[in-house]
Model the fold of this input.
Amino acid sequence: MQTDPNHIREKELPLFPLNVVLFPGGLLPLHIFEQRYREMVKFCLRNESSFGIVMIKEGEEAGEAATPCKVGTAVDLVEVDRLPDGRMNIMTSGHSRFEILEVNDELPYLVGRVRMLDSLDAEPDASLEEIAAKTRELYIEYETLSSYLIFSWQTPDGNPKHPQKLAYQIGTRLRIPLNEKQELLEITSFDALLKREIEILEIQNQQIAFQLRSRNN
Done:
C-alpha cells in the first residue's frame, strides 16, 4: 500500500500569531512574557518541536487569541535565555513555510494542523536558474541603491545561489508593507514568487534611484 505524500507532510504545530512576516532562513528574536507562550516554549523544548510564526489576520498580539493568516513559517529554537521571573528571551530560525489546514484552540495557545510547503534542504529546480539570475541582478542593484539612500543600511554578506533561498532572502530584505510580504509568503510556486519579486524590485529600484537623484540635485 502506498503512503499519501501529502499526509506525510501534515503535522501538528504550535502557533504564535504576531504582527510580523518571517521567511525561511530568517532569524527572529522574541521576548516571551505571556504565560501561554511560556508554556508553548517549554513544550517545544521538552519535545524538540518547532513552532509556527504566522502573521495576525485579525486581533492583537496580546490578550485573546488572534486569528492567524493561512500561511506561516515553522521555526526552530536556537537560543533560550530564561529570566528569573519566568520570562524568556529566545532566538528563532525559520526553516519551512506551512499552510494551516485546521486550528485547535483547546490549549492556552493555538495549535494548527498544517501542511508543510517546502524546505531549504530541497534541491534547486534547474528551470528556475534563468529567472533566478535576473532576480539576483535586480536584487544586488536594490541592495546597492539602498545602501546609498539609507546611511545605516547594512548589506548582507552574500547572495544565495540557491533560487529558493534567494527568494526567501529577498522577501526578508524588501522594504514593503507587511500585507505585501505576506502575499509573497503565500506564493507557493517559486517560479511565480521570483517573477513577482522581479516586478517589485524593478519598481523599488526606480523609486530609490529617483530619490537619490532628487537628493543630489
